[in-house]
Amino acid sequence: MHPSERRYVITFGCPDRTGIVARIAGFIAEEGGWIVEAAYHTDPDTGWFFTRQEVRADSLPYDVDELRERFGPVAESLGADEDVEGGAGGLHWRIDDTGTRRRVVVLVSKEGHCLYDLLGRVAAGELDVDVSAVIGNHDVLADVTRAHGIPFHHVPFGTDAASKAEAFARVAEITDAADPHAIVLARFMQILPEHLCHAWTGRAINIHHSFLPSFVGAKPYHQAHVRGVKLVGATCHYVTAELDAGPIIEQDVIRVDHGDSIPDMVRKGRDIEKVVLARGLRWHLENRVLVHAGRTVVF
Amino acid sequence: MHPSERRYVITFGCPDRTGIVARIAGFIAEEGGWIVEAAYHTDPDTGWFFTRQEVRADSLPYDVDELRERFGPVAESLGADEDVEGGAGGLHWRIDDTGTRRRVVVLVSKEGHCLYDLLGRVAAGELDVDVSAVIGNHDVLADVTRAHGIPFHHVPFGTDAASKAEAFARVAEITDAADPHAIVLARFMQILPEHLCHAWTGRAINIHHSFLPSFVGAKPYHQAHVRGVKLVGATCHYVTAELDAGPIIEQDVIRVDHGDSIPDMVRKGRDIEKVVLARGLRWHLENRVLVHAGRTVVF
Amino acid sequence: MHPSERRYVITFGCPDRTGIVARIAGFIAEEGGWIVEAAYHTDPDTGWFFTRQEVRADSLPYDVDELRERFGPVAESLGADEDVEGGAGGLHWRIDDTGTRRRVVVLVSKEGHCLYDLLGRVAAGELDVDVSAVIGNHDVLADVTRAHGIPFHHVPFGTDAASKAEAFARVAEITDAADPHAIVLARFMQILPEHLCHAWTGRAINIHHSFLPSFVGAKPYHQAHVRGVKLVGATCHYVTAELDAGPIIEQDVIRVDHGDSIPDMVRKGRDIEKVVLARGLRWHLENRVLVHAGRTVVF
Amino acid sequence: MHPSERRYVITFGCPDRTGIVARIAGFIAEEGGWIVEAAYHTDPDTGWFFTRQEVRADSLPYDVDELRERFGPVAESLGADEDVEGGAGGLHWRIDDTGTRRRVVVLVSKEGHCLYDLLGRVAAGELDVDVSAVIGNHDVLADVTRAHGIPFHHVPFGTDAASKAEAFARVAEITDAADPHAIVLARFMQILPEHLCHAWTGRAINIHHSFLPSFVGAKPYHQAHVRGVKLVGATCHYVTAELDAGPIIEQDVIRVDHGDSIPDMVRKGRDIEKVVLARGLRWHLENRVLVHAGRTVVF
């Protein structure tokens, strides 16, 4: 990354009132900061205000820690607490340095299309992240993962509660060792236990192969086929303890018709799953996704 | 309509077996019929075969009644019963003459966008039908309807069961007098009683303002907003006794984001409602929609 | 309009530098203004900065003229000249009051679908404008226009230069009498003379029935059919002296296939023309479209 | 492939006349063939008729050579010549056996996204082909290709005519040795010489990163940015001697806005390039694409 491309990204949310934009923009201007991208949103339902600001790092004479320290009183005066966990889930405010490379852990099962797509994007230089680890409850995706120079961990899952708990403990151990910015459930077929949903709030991202809230749970393409829908979809969302009910980051659909069998729908749907997941992950890693009241603001 | 544009449209469904295409195409060829459009579909789930054939009327030396009489034994030999009701709901086979102008009755309430869109399409010559009547449980759409030279019937609905039944009896009377090919519920806010769902099977078409099966019932845009979806949709479907559960003819979606209030979603959704209804109605009137096992084949 | 829904809309463009957001937001905050929507954009190619701010009118103790007067020195200090013409074409800055109802003049020929769509949106209360006049070089659309209570002016166009010039003089006279915020060429088949392109810069909006820059000029659907494209499109753009080359406000496409004849493409394309024009016009009337260097910023 | 999934695919085109469907369907029925998919199209512009039929291989008591021999006289009687070259380019008729595994050669340069996408689809079992070889004029994509177990050939291209000719001779040698069903130009940055366009007619498939006919030639995203379009597209087409003018197999678009820089457009466009190429290639390999008069019929 060229120094001129390095950014400090400020995300911020608080109850709306007049003068917030002036206060934040004024602070940045006083510090000499050069804003290269700015977005604002007020949610009339909840009365909350949200903003995201990208400041050129080289326009400020100090580092991100100093910026956080100086911005703290501004945020406090506006009623926002620092989001020390850093998760988009409990947004108040945070500042991230794009000079810190993003780390991602990917959880998979047997279906490779989302993983291959992510690896291809990393290899093509389009998704600028470190894939710290891929963890599979099966090992069929090990070879291609390793061919990309990425560690693959096979963690078999039993069917009884005890062995599942043990497997998830191992998954958590490997994942947490990487301290990832995102944990991607790339068609991982196991339901995260509640304690991991909480521990990874705002960082665990799932791709569900339907246009939620349609077709929650297992075999959504089968459900879609039975209902005779004319479009199938995919939904990228944050993982919460309630299955397939987390805040939605991105969705898209693709047309199907009576001539499409379930395998056809599965195949066509994959193209949407891949792109919806890739968009959602990118936006998350760029701190574009703010969560409030179970919904997302995507700047 | 120029004589060379007049068609006999054959739709046909029966359990699949070898030789059906040859039998039907052979019959048409023997009669000297010129097929201008032909479509086939076999549903592997139900083992049923469907076809739709358009034959130039001027390629046959007799009229549609004679064609029906000659085709009867062919259909019978393949195991299909004539669909005397003529509804797409109970498809076996039918033959329609495009020289008979289609009649449509439209049921409305206060929201005019779908009605205005249909009237505009008729006025522009794009939808070649007679709108026999528009029936409203309110009268706010009377003036524009009448400006298009179309009768508007105001049938007020009470809130108790008896007055609703009386109102529906009046709606049925006006509707049945027109013997329409389609009864369009263009944002009609009353739920059809079961006996009318049955009487109008395969002819009553509803536009629902969500991507079904998401957000069944009232206020789907509000439901969508609460869930934080990134696309809103519309569904055109045949009316059945189970609310919003009839065979789906067409669906489409439009993108929304966190900046869209519920009124914004309502407004954007209307553009999809209009076009989805217009497409579904056109396909129905062209005998392109075949219903079997609760789903549609759209040729 | 409820007083709380009235807005002062500030649009602003100038060469980028640090502190612009702070300066503008600071000014609004000092005046006590309540910003309900704000958008910013910096174009790295041209080095220009753009913003659009919606302020609640009832949050300021004075009217829009006073706001303009006070804002003037702020804008001047940032290097922007007031855009006295008010056109989006020559943007520097302007402030509009949404309490002033928008006026629109529509130019048509024989094809009614875009006009009917606009009239339907006005009748449904979705497009909150006064259609001051509809002017047609043919009179086939007169009846429906008048049924909506809107004056229709038939201005026949001859084929020689002199009679065309005379007809355009009449069109300009009727149009300018209404002092409209937008002049909509709703499938108007005459090419505006250069002096009207200049006089109406930033206010004359055309709908072209192709995905520009494909298929400039006449009969774009025919051109599309010959080339065998798989999507047809529509483009809403500001009119400039160079044919079909003005700044693009909005575009969309719809899928076609080998089974679609040219009339099918025309029919399908209309659904896109209508919605693209309606979106573009709405954005224009809401002062969301800023023009610079031949391209638009749509906030 | 399970024997019951093996198909003989008949594609056929001839000047339209009555009785063609009956003749072909009758032939198949007499032979005892079980048609699992059938499509027909008549092009009113050219007066040509096209069909594609999938017959279960296990429903016929003989092999594909025998079927070709028996079908020959039927086709001849209808005026179609056997398409011995087998290319979709010069369609008359052909019969292919899906039991013969498809072979593909991919030509690349430095940009890997389309190649990675194809390799991912093959690895995921979604695209059931043998990638016989990948040929690059640079070697940056060699490692990932070989990690998938596929031979990578680096054929450097000079800048003078002689060295280009030499390089193309080597490309042709490697390609022709594989006798591929498709030669995919997956963002290959060299223009095929005319003799290879001819030799590979109907088999060479290119992905162009614009919505053709917009932005022919080099740097289409730059051209799109300058014009300020609101959608960018991709086009999959057969290669012909005229640059970017071959028959279009598939197209799609994705929305961009004023906030998208050229690199953003490049990145977003890639998602469309990949999916458009994958669809086009699949349809080609399934013999769904028939070419006539410079346009495609895609069944």
Provide structural commentary.
Chain A has 299 residues and is an alpha/beta fold. Chain A has 8 helices and 13 strands. Chain A has a 7-stranded mixed beta sheet, with helices on both faces. In chain A, strand 8 (182-185), helix 6 and strand 9 form a beta-alpha-beta unit. Chain A is globular, with a radius of gyration of 20 Å. Chain A starts with 6 loop residues before the first strand and ends with a strand. The model of chain A is unreliable at 84-90 (pLDDT under 50). At the A-B interface, strand 11 and strand 13 of A face strand 11 and strand 13 of B. Chains A, B, C, D: This is Formyltetrahydrofolate deformylase.
Topology, please?
The structure is a homotetramer of 299-residue chains.
Chain A (H helix, E strand, L loop, with lengths): L6 E9 L4 H12 L3 E9 L4 E9 L7 H15 L14 E5 L4 E7 L4 H11 L5 E8 L5 H6 L4 E3 L6 H18 L3 E4 L8 H6 L4 E5 L11 H8 L3 E8 L9 E8 L6 H24 L3 E4 L2 E4 L1
Parallel strand pairs in A: 5-6, 5-8, 6-7, 8-9
Antiparallel strand pairs in A: 1-3, 1-4, 2-3, 9-10, 10-11, 12-13
| CATH fold-level label of the largest domain in chain A | Rossmann fold
Helicity range of the residues of chain A?
Answer: 25-40%
Mean pLDDT of chain A: 93
The low-confidence parts of chain A are: 84-90
* Largest interface chains and counts: A-B, 31 and 31 residues
Sheet-strand content of chain A, in percent, reads: 25-35%
CATH architecture label name of the largest domain in chain A: 3-Layer(aba) Sandwich
| Name of the top-level CATH class of the largest domain in chain A | Alpha Beta
Radius of gyration of chain A: 20 Å
What's the number of domains of chain A?
A: 2
Strand order of the largest sheet of chain A: 7-6-5-8-9-10-11
Order of helices and strands of chain A: EHEEHEEHEHEHEHEHEEHEE
What sort of overall outline of chain A do the alpha carbons produce when their principal axes are compared?
globular
Q: Report the oligomer.
A: homotetramer
- Count every helix of chain A, treating DSSP H or I runs of 4 or more residues as helices: 8
Question: How would you classify the helix and strand content of chain A by structural class?
Answer: alpha/beta
Main sheet makeup of chain A: 7 strands, mixed
Q: How would you name the CATH homologous superfamily of the largest domain in chain A?
A: Formyl transferase, N-terminal domain
InterPro entries (chains A, B, C, D): ACT-like_dom_sf, ACT_dom, Formyl-FH4-Hydrolase_C, Formyl_transf_N, Formyl_transf_N_sf, PurU, PurU_ACT
Organism (chains A, B, C, D): Haloechinothrix halophila YIM 93223
Catalytic activity (chains A, B, C, D): (6R)-10-formyltetrahydrofolate + H2O = (6S)-5,6,7,8-tetrahydrofolate + formate + H(+)
GO molecular function (chains A, B, C, D): formyltetrahydrofolate deformylase activity
